[in-house]
Amino acid sequence: MISNGWQWGLGLWVLQRSWVDLTPFLERIFSGWKWGEQARELRSAASVLKTLGETLEGGIVPEQKDWDRLRGFPAPWGILIATGIRDLRESGSAVLPTLKRMEETLLAQADGLMEARARTTQAFSQALTGMGLVPLFGFALYEMMPGIGSGGSGFLLLIAGGSVYASFSAVWILNLAEEARYGGLPFTQRQWLLSAPAALERMLSLVSGGLPPDLAWRKQHEELAFRDPSLASLWGAEVWQSETHDSVAGDETVSGLVIRVGREVKKSIQLALLEGRSCLDRIESISKSHQQEVRLKIRERLEALPNRCLLPLFLFVLPPVFVLLAAALLHALREIES
Q1: Confidence band for 64, pLDDT divided at 50, 70 and 90
Q2: By Cβ atoms counted within 10 A, which residue in 144, 153, 252, 310 is the most buried?
Q3: Which whole number is the average pLDDT over 233-244?
Q4: d(Cα 239, Cα 216) in Å, to the nearest integer?
């Protein structure tokens, strides 16, 4: 009796600890819904920019409250777009090209979020399967196989231990899904996916406002240093600053692409200053190419995600299933012999 009570207590404690430890991962399973919400916010912001552009094309000056709506956009776009548009209006520069370019950028990011949500759905299903298969299979054996119920609580303790072991598959799968969503970027660099295009858009708006490109680069770098110091330090504050190494020259990872796009923009500015021509179109082309390359890298990761999720299932789900089946058969044989 004491032995059974000890087993029951240990089993309940294991289940309680596993539930507490896995609650954050359950929240991450449903994080795809947040991606959908973020995509809707980006689409709504793009719709506001489109409305402002159509209003200007119709020869009507939007009211101040319409311009103030820009600050309500998702970070970091709210402050970025509002500041850029304000600078253009104060300098008397054309606003429409910037509005259209930023509208396209926001729509592209929204599409990327929705694609990531769709492609990670199977991975989230695999994570749920890995967490639920062992306890469901174990309790099914407990009810159906003879001799298990009369064998005490040992089999229930085995179910609890197997469930905890199988839950590590969900942890692994969720990490793989997040890694694929960010194109394999480490956790400390994932902000780069927003910081890089935001910095390039800010650079374009400053140059469009008439600021010399080298000064525009320095100003956007100062703003980038507040949002993302790690990326700012890699890009460098000065256009003519020499690179200490070219380790990213052949790096085709997302991290290498983000670092390299800053250096390409600096080289474009250098050529423009030496030749005495505008670099606006060149920087815009570099920005669009960079975003397309990053989307392709992320898509490759997302497409390979379902196959990569099979390994955690084999390592953490199949073993406890076979152990439970073997234990159930053993109890059934003992029941038949007795």
Answers
A1: confident
A2: 153
A3: 81
A4: 10
Interval 245-259: pLDDT, tens: 555 556 778 999 999
- Alpha-carbon span 332 to 260, nearest angstrom: 64
The beta-carbon contacts of 301-307 under 8 Å, at least 24 apart in sequence, are: 301/179, 301/180, 301/181, 301/183, 301/184, 302/115, 302/116, 302/119, 302/120, 302/180, 302/181, 303/119, 304/180, 305/119, 305/120, 305/122, 305/123, 305/176, 305/177, 305/180, 306/122, 306/123, 306/126
Bond from prior residue into 76 cis (ω within 30 degrees of 0): yes
What is the model's pTM? 0.80
- Which of 20-24, 229-233, 256-260, 280-284 is the least confident region? 20-24
Taking the C-alpha atoms of residue 102 and residue 198, their distance in angstroms, rounded to an integer, is 9
Helices (H), 145-246: 154-181, 192-208, 213-227, 229-235
**Longest alpha-carbon distance in the chain:** 97
Burial class (CB in 10 A: 0-12, 13-18, 19+), 291: buried
Report d(CA 23, CA 29) in Å as an integer: 10
Confidence of residue 26 (pLDDT cuts 50, 70, 90): low
Q: Which residue has the tokens 């407990």?
A: 142
d(CA 256, CA 258): 5
Amino acid at 158: L
Burial category of 262 from C-beta neighbours within 10 Å (exposed 0-12, middle 13-18, buried 19 and up)? buried
Triad 71, 32, 128: Cα angle to 5°: 160
Contact 113, 228 (CB under 8 A): no
Residue pair 95/88 in contact (Cβ under 8 Å)? The answer is yes
